Amino acid sequence: MSASEVRAGFEEFVAARRGALLRTAYLLTGGHEDAEDLVQLALVKALPHWTRIADAPEPYVRRILARESVTRWRRRRWREVSVDRLPESSATGEDPTDRELLRRALLQLSPRQRAVVVLRYFEDLTEAQTADVLGIRLGTVKSHGREALERLRSMLPDDDAVQV
Amino acid sequence: MSTLHERLEALADDAPSGGLDPALYDRARRYHRRRRAGTALVVAAAVLGVLGIAGGAHLQTRADVQPAAPSAAAAVPERLYAPSPWLSGTDDDGPLGRIAVLMTDQERKSWISADHEAVVGISATTGEYRFLDLPDDAGQGWALSPDGRRVAFWITGATTGTANTQAGQALPVTGLAVYDADTGGVLRYPVETAHGLMVDRNSSLAWADADHLVFSFSQWRGGDGASGERASMSGPGAPLSVWKVGAEAPRTIDPETVSSEVEATNGRGEVLVGDYAYAVSDGSRHRLRTPGRSMTRSSALSPSGGLVAYPRGNGNPAPIVIVGHAGNRVVDSSVPGNDETFSVFAWLDAGHLLAEEYAPQSRYRTDLYRVNIRTGVSQRVVRLAGPGNFRYSGQLATDLLDAGFVARPAPPTPWDPRTVAGAVAALIAAACVVLVLWRRRVRL
Question: Could you tell me which residue ranges the RNA polymerase sigma-70 region domain spans (chain A) (predicted)?
Fold first, then answer.
């Protein structure tokens, strides 16, 4: 595969799938800029391997996306603060929407718990697939998933109880 | 009530919109180029560092000693250095060849065994230092032959009863052996013993000449754990014996002289035991009274066997005296000056001795001096490594003293390989840390 073919294939993939990747990245990071940075990082890291993954690049890029959200972004974003429930109102004094409440609740999870929730309940991966993507053991996925759901249930209002 | 999947879908709708990023491909290429360049730089620096350490360590293991020409003259070095405990041994580098100086009680270190005392030989032709790997060495005494071609030593092995290890401090002695410095071969003479042989480290083994080894020992009365004082008492002793190297068995020199110290030898077939000089060829002896001789390994027997030179008195050091007889004349004279002599090593010729005395303006280091027995004028001929007395830790090939003393290169001082390995590991670890940190910091 020539350099021009790599470039064409890469740019075609970015144009087609960047939006979908940003949706996942937004759930993983909880912020617009962070989501864009995470997607850019995943795409950049995938580029040297493009000739090998050119036929089906998305699983590989999503694997980088998930793992980087845990490793690289853990140091920047996650400062775990134990709270029983989310604040009743936003900083501006307006009532938060359901989306905002869920976003804040996700941000209270550890990066790995958040990644498990996103992969299991947004990407609809099985526990085994989630373990494979994150490079962790199946038991770890189960325990993180169980703990994450418990925390989400405790942090979200009763009428927003989490149904899976 | 919606499911978590539906609510995540809804939240994902808040994600920024995707679009074209035409510069992304070029940024990605630059990013990877920077990472590769940085990685190569760190790896290159680490490799250079490792090569530097390894090269330095290698250079430290080499001396400036060049292979001796076949005709290189054998001689005693005019300066002796303290050998490094990390020097190589004859098992690694082969036999040393003719030995000018034997240095005993030297510390030897290795990766796999505990630090222990060992014997270093100094080549007579190149000045190279090397540990002698003497098989089954009991560590209880060594003797360098006058020609420097053989080293005799006590060997350890199995005893017929409980071995006496002096409370685990020593190996049981079960015989003696002779190491050939040219070939590395070893001739053994085992002695049957119940608990091991009791030998004196400094005076149980001596070469009468290049082929005849004189020795003396007694048997331990008990082994480890023996009741009472048996474990610390000597039993029956063996008479003073001589072994012509290669002969089937030693023969007795004097059946009445048992467990005796061999205090001096002239390298020409005569040894000094007590107040007698014995000729090992036929066992004949003549009396040599040496009043005031109080230190072992401090006397020198003249080539004729008629005179003994030694420091007289209980003082340490002491002035040199010469006693005996020259023809029909009785000799009992003092060497002028030289009041601080520890030991007389040998007769250099009829008018000069080789003696160990304090170095000038020093009370802790000694050197070897050529001493004129009539005028007392002394001249340093061998600078010793010091501190400590050479007479207990060094032996010279006395046949080489006629050739004078020559300059030889200093031995190598290898670095502790454990330190080298640690430095290399630390360097590699540091490079890895730098690499990881740098790769994390590199920006798109």
Answer: 15-79
